[in-house]
Amino acid sequence: MASVCAFIAARLRAWDVDRVFGVPGRHIDPLVTALPGERTPPEFIHARHEESATLMACAHAKLTGRAGCCLASPGSGALHLLGGLYDAALDRPPVVAVVGREPPSPVSTAGRRCPSPGAPPCRQPLPSR
C-alpha cells in the first residue's frame, strides 16, 4: 500500500507539475522526500517564506501555462499562502496549494483528555443558562 505522500507526488507528476515551491517543515518533509521518486520528478525549490513560495508558483503558472505548486506547513504557514493564492484567484493561473496536516492532539480543545481508540467519544457538557 502506497503512502499518502507517494500518492500526492504521483498526482503532481500526472498534472505535469515540474516545480514545487515551498518551505520545508516537520509536517511536509515526508512529501518533499517523496517527490524524487520517479524518472521525471518535480523539482523542489526552497523558498524563504510561504507567501513568496505561492507568488513563485503563481508566476511560474502565468509564464509557462503549466500548473504551479506550493507547499506549506499547517497553521500560520497555510495562512501565509493566502496572499499569493489571492493573486492567483484574480489572474486565474492553475496553482495547486498543498498544506501539511498536524497529527491530532491527545488533548481535546476543552482541555479534557480524549479517550483511547475504541472507547466511546467524550460528551461535552452543555453550557448552563
UniProtKB/TrEMBL annotation:
What's the superkingdom here?
Answer: Bacteria
Specify the Thiamine pyrophosphate enzyme N-terminal TPP-binding domain's residue ranges: 6-103
**InterPro entries per record:** POXB-like, THDP-binding, Thiamin_PyroP_enz_TPP-bd_dom
Q: Which Gene3D superfamilies match?
A: 3.40.50.970
Disordered: annotated span: 100-129
Q: Where is the composition biased (Pro residues)?
A: 117-129
Protein known as: Thiamine pyrophosphate-dependent acetolactate synthase large subunit-like protein
Query: What species does this protein belong to?
Result: Streptomyces demainii
Q: What is the lineage of its organism?
A: Bacteria, Bacillati, Actinomycetota, Actinomycetes, Kitasatosporales
